[in-house]
Write a structure and sequence with these properties.
By secondary structure, the chain is α/β, with parallel strands linked by helices. Among the domains are: 6-43, Helicase, Ruva Protein, domain 3; 77-173, Dna Topoisomerase Vi A Subunit, Chain: A, domain 2 (3-Layer(aba) Sandwich). The protein is built from eight helices and six strands. 16% of the residues are buried.
Length: 202
């Protein structure tokens, strides 16, 4: 195939390196960008630079923020004694969309995965333990572990349970089971087993 444009190929290459963006989608996005007015493209470019320059991690929960402490941690409408532990900032967005949780968060920025060379020191576990220092933070009564139901997620949960046992804090985990709107026959055995295990009285 003849190379039409080095700059276009370079843009396609960069876009296709993004998660969930294949080469075909990257080409479509690149051609869309070409059709846009220069001002719009400059605005997009500036937004990308602003994110890199301004976004940092909250000093309390390690979520992304533009300030030293994020708006969730600073809010007086949140319960400070309940902390939901998640893997990534996108998990915070997912839980916030439900409007059901009014506690705080702690973002680990990953999960323990020995096969990938990721150990406890490679994620934000030390920062989580520091939150139990009542001279600096309010008392935590419950930790909700909302990690993905994968081998690595389970490994991280088991590690956290052992690590936090001496602190006498209530540890719970989000229920797992059959999604609303799906058929039982389409659910795998593990999902069905967990749904039965996590059954609730009605």
């Amino acid at each position: 195939m003849i190379n039409i444009s080095d700059s276009l190929d370079s843009l396609i290459e960069e876009l296709s390196s993004l998660p969930s963006i294949g080469r075909k989608t990257a080409r479509r996005l690149a051609l869309f960008i070409i059709k846009q007015p220069r001002e719009k493209v400059e605005k997009l470019s500036q937004s990308l630079i602003n994110v890199k320059d301004k976004i940092k991690f909250c000093k309390v929960c390690c979520n992304i923020t533009e300030d030293d402490i994020c708006k969730i941690c600073l809010s007086d409408k949140r319960r400070k004694n309940i902390v939901c532990v998640v893997e990534d900032p996108q998990d915070v967005y997912a839980i916030e969309k439900t409007n059901e949780f009014d506690g705080l968060y702690h973002v680990l920025h990953g999960r323990i995965s020995p096969l990938d060379g990721i150990g406890p020191d490679d994620i934000k576990l030390r920062e989580l333990i520091e939150r139990f220092d009542e001279t600096k933070h309010e008392k935590i009564d419950e930790l909700i572990l909302a990690l993905n139901p994968t081998v690595e997620g389970e490994t991280t949960i088991l590690y956290l349970q052992r690590l936090l046992k001496p602190l006498n804090v209530k540890i719970s985990r989000i229920a797992r089971g059959v999604p609303i709107g799906s058929d039982l026959e389409l659910a795998d055995e593990v999902t069905l087993a967990k749904a039965i295990e996590n059954r609730v009285a009605i």
